[in-house]
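Whether sequence alone determines local backbone shape is best considered at the level of individual chains. For completeness, the protein is quoted in full, as a sequence line and a line of structure tokens:
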Amino acid sequence: MLSLNSLRIACSSPAALQLNWRMTHRLPFSRTLRRRGLCMCTSFPSKDARAARKRKAPVYYTNHVTSPMNYCTDQVRLNCWNCHHRLDNKPAFFCMSCKVVQPPEEETSYFHIMDCDYTFTLDTHKLQKRYLQLQRSLHPDNFSQKSVKEQEYSESQSALVNKAYKTLLKPLSRGLYMLKLEGLYIEEGTESRAESEFLTELMEINEALDEARTPEDVDKIGVDTKEKLAELTEQIDAALREGELQAARALLTQMKYYANIEEKVKEKRSKFM
């Protein structure tokens, strides 16, 4: 890790001064979201978040500060590959000068691509609206008469937008992505470390689903599963707001199992149609 003196030399800016203050006061840092031309560090408030949660005010987890894990020496200025005009918008889908599609910035946060607040309870309607807007302008069909390079860039941009949209749309994939940004992962085989009481509960639900003989029996399991997923959503959001990432990871592991049960309920219900 870089020393504080190195950071002072590399980033002599208000963000760096804020970094020095945070290091002096021993405040925790979280994983940096890298974007070309911007260092964005995500952190989770505690006291303010709890107070906001009590009054049901939205809390967003984004602080524009420099992190010692990934700091900026200068803001990188990107230029259009076609006319070399400076690209001020980030992410830059098109050049504002020559209107040519630009290559995707792969390291850009999905939240930034989809213009969403960095929060677990994001506005999915806004997400869908942004998705449709981007796909209308970036879809490869719009570039069939353009150069080969533009066709390739449109395909790459469209694919990246698709991936970002699908990741952020559902709570489970969204939560897993947020933990990934923080350097935490849910590995395969986590059932071996899950609590035996929880695994027993899952086995009983799966057995009841297998033995269900009427649509009503299946629907009851489906309703119970939806209620459990809603409860987990609230708990995960609270854990992320308070910076309890390990607790959020454990809850997301549970959500992963219940999401699988929800899919099994849909499959079982389809057999009665």
The beta strands are 32-35, 38-42, 62-63, 78-79, 86-87. The chain has a mean pLDDT of 78.
